[in-house]
Amino acid sequence: MKINSYSFSELIETTLDGEWGEGEARTGYEACYIIRGTDFSKLNRFDYELPIRWIKQSAIDRKKLSYGDLVLETAGGTSTQSTGRSVLIGKSFIGTHKNKPVLCSSFARHLRINKNVVNPTFLFYLMQSLYKAGYMGVFNIQHTGISRFQFTTFKNKTKLSIPSLVIQKKIAAVLSAYDDLIENNNRRIAILEKMAEELYCEWFVRLRFPGHEKTKIVKGVPEGWDVKRIGDIIRFEKGKNPVALFDEISEETDIYLNVDAIENRYYKYAQKLKSISCKEDETLMLMDGARSSVVFNGKKGIVSSTFAVIRTDAQNRPMLHEYFKANLEAMVSNNTGSAIPHANKEFIIRMCIKLPLNNDLIKKFNEQYQTIFSQLRNLQHKKSILTISRDRLLSHLMSGKIDLGKMDIKFPASMMEDAACA
Fold first, then answer.
1. Domains in the chain, please, with CATH?
2. CA torsion, points 154, 390, 422, 45, in degrees to nearest 10?
């Protein structure tokens, strides 16, 4: 297999920094979708809403993203998650965002690829392998808790071994087939999450729970229910920074639950001793950073310092998880901090929730919720297996351990345009 060496700068035609613009309409500005690093993992979810900002028309003309572009995160990392992540702008994404221009944020860079030398999908996967190997972290500098990526140094210093375009497209096709399956699982997961949200809203917001027709409502509260302060039924237990992180699990370690582990299944392992642990049916809330107050389904593991576990009685966990999701906007609007936002625990514990005093009603809700939740967990497990398999293939394909030169590769639907040229 013929291999050529290129500097990263030779693989891109142009690179531009991002925009953040204004929060409301202004003369000479146009509403645009903006992609931030925090949006990368959910970019192709049909139900995911990107932030809208108003950008100068002159900047839009130069910086509008197109099919085949890459977006590189250049700021916003933490001590446990380096910058240098990237995302590919696919055809389906462009197709679902036709109504407004799409740009990347000021904490990212827009990369337009030199397609005469490298296939954009192949380059995206190559950059994923560099990130997973820790190479991108070499170019991080950190001040005041926020990591920044030294793009100019990376661009000029990085030399990459690139096979022929035919081989590139075959490698991209194999990995894209996995990602298409993962994305199909993501769509099904999103539908189940919506079903869980709707179940909660029907019972606890619209108050159309079983037997509601015969229940008297007094000042907005059903008879036999009570209004509780959140602080009376939960407590926050914040995670800790680990002494060390490990690449392999052992009897003394467990999965370290940071955002990358929860959302992307990129696992590191921390020691169990003197750590804060989480169970699968508990809720994790992000306490620090741009997404402070966002909640996630828990996972058995060691809680990172950016998360807190919501401790409450087991029977209340499903209901409270959906309560926090339903009230996210109120919590976010009361986050504290200017440079780095933080979840406002004092505000959250003063929030109120309507609870039935009849435990049978809560049990009925949990039974219906568990039916949805078990399907969701099953799909997440399948997604995890696919992700692990893809990542193993990624390292083997990029290192040349698997030679696709003489193999007849079937291109997935997402790459049929490339198949015609292969």
1. 3-163 (3.90.220.20), 225-357 (3.90.220.20)
2. -80
pLDDT tens figures, 50-102: 999 999 999 999 999 999 999 999 998 766 678 999 999 999 899 999 999 99
pTM: 0.84
pLDDT of 196 reads 98
CA distance 83 to 298: 24
pLDDT tens readout for residues 132-172: 899 999 999 977 667 899 999 999 999 999 999 999 999 99
Phi, psi of 133, rounded to the nearest 5 degrees: -80, -5
Tokens of 418: 């490339």
Residue 312, CA atoms < 13 Å, CB-side half-sphere: 20
CB atoms under 10 Å from CB of 339, counted, come to: 7
* Cα 301 to Cα 279: distance, rounded to the nearest angstrom: 7
Q: Quickly tell me which residue has 């036709």 as its tokens.
A: 98
**How many CB atoms lie under 10 A from the CB of residue 403?**
12
pLDDT for position 411: 76
CB 139, CB 84: distance < 8 Å: yes
